[in-house]
Amino acid sequence: MLTIADHQFSSRLFTGTGKFSTSALMLEAITCSGSELVTMAMKRLDLKTGSDDILQPLLSSGVKLLPNTSGARNAKEAVFAAELAREMLDTSWIKLEIHPDPKYLMPDPIETLEAAKILCDKGFIVLPYVHADPVLCRRLEEVGCAAVMPLGSPIGSNQGLVTETFLKMIIEQARVPVIVDAGIGAPSQATRAMELGADAVLVNTAIASSRDPVAMGRCFASAVQTGRDAYLAGLGHVNSVASQTSPLTGFLNDTM
Amino acid sequence: MSHKISASNRSETSIKVMLNDEQIFLSSGLNVPGLLQLQNIAASSVALVRNGQVLPKSRWKETLCRDGDQFEVFALVAGG
């Protein structure tokens, strides 16, 4: 079981709710993925079109909702968004994300650390989305974040674990759960993140933009489980030279 | 002097508030849940900002709309 703050999760696959073609498909894909923590965003309500009305079906499905601060460009806006989310969902959990750059959606480390300090002091359970920066992750842990969420590659890019070297450092050093977020584009990449020792992964685009999101949700569920099992079983060392797996007796030379 | 507003004069006392950039004319004395109901907004799934400050749900009932108030309503949407 994975424990974040005081909450236990039996699935180490967290999912996002964006980019699905319909709400019904999103719900079915999430259900089939086994995900127990699901992210959502907030926006000003359009009085003419109303809301998506995806909240009640998600709540009924029993998943825990993790609102994010997407759209915030600085710490002040992120704190405001977190307070809105707390009012909306009666939850102190918040995925802190501040990415002012619209092209690459790179998280702003300075504003994120500042917001994390404020939100932790206010009693929020803060899960910050950050670049795979081991030093920043330590700092976020020190100010009281419940987990860290380093990126594998840019949001929605499906590029996989571009940051693998740094994810390893973060996983090695962290005393809070490490959730690899963003960029995981294939189940094999989720397996790899879990093999490295990540505590969980968060996947959205790879499931939502696949041809069959429900089937892909299942694929990610088994991929994450396989990666976790492999991590617990302990991977063998990587060597630069061959190491025989069969005895090399040289019998051909002896007889010919 | 009574501060009570009777049903008959409520409609005569009109105020203007902004709700997500739309002008809305209301009878004075309407509270926040009343405003949301009037706009067919499900109160259970939204958060409200009044004049730049988050208005906690615990204070909605006691908060009356005042002329010139600026409300912003936020809702959850799909996201990653």
Specify the CATH homologous superfamily of chain B: Beta-grasp domain
CATH topology heading of chain B: Ubiquitin-like (UB roll)
List the secondary-structure elements of chain B in sequence, H or E.
HEEHEEE
Please give the largest β-sheet of chain B: 5 strands, mixed
- Tell me the overall shape of chain B: globular
CATH architecture of chain A: Alpha-Beta Barrel
Biggest protein-protein interface? A-B, 39 and 25 residues
| Gyration radius over CA of chain B | 14 Å
**CATH class membership of chain A:** Alpha Beta
Helix content estimate of chain A: 40-55%
Cα-atom radius of gyration of chain A: 20 Å
- Gap from first CA to last CA of chain A: 59 Å
Write down the CATH class of chain B: Alpha Beta
In what range is the share of β-strand residues of chain A?
A: 15-25%
The total strand number of chain B stands at 5
Strand order, sheet with most strands of chain A: 5-4-3-10-9
Organism (chain B): Shewanella benthica KT99
Protein name (chain B): ThiS protein, putative
GO biological process, one term (chain A): thiamine diphosphate biosynthetic process
Subunit structure (chain A): Homotetramer. Forms heterodimers with either ThiH or ThiS.
Task: Write up this protein.
The complex is a heterodimer of chains A (256) and B (80). Chain A has 256 residues and is α/β, with parallel strands linked by helices. Chain A is 41% helix and 16% strand. Chain A has helices at 23-33, 55-61, 75-89, 109-121, 134-142, 164-173, 187-195, 205-208, 213-233, 251-255; strands at residues 2-4, 7-9, 13-16, 37-44, 64-67, 93-96, 125-130, 149-150, 179-181, 200-203. With 80 residues, chain B is mostly beta strands. Chain B has a single domain, classed as Beta-grasp domain (Ubiquitin-like (UB roll)). Chain B is 14% helix and 35% strand. Chain B has a 5-stranded mixed sheet with strand order 2-1-5-3-4, with no helix packed on it. Classes of the chains: A alpha/beta (256), B mainly beta (80). Chains A and B meet through strand 4 and helix 3 of A and strand 3 and strand 5 of B. Strand 4 of chain A pairs antiparallel with strand 5 of chain B, so a sheet runs across the interface. Chain A: Pfam families: ThiG. Chain A: Residues 3-247 form the Thiazole synthase ThiG domain. Chain A: InterPro entries: Aldolase_TIM, Thiazole_synthase_ThiG, ThiG. Chain A: It is found in: Cytoplasm.
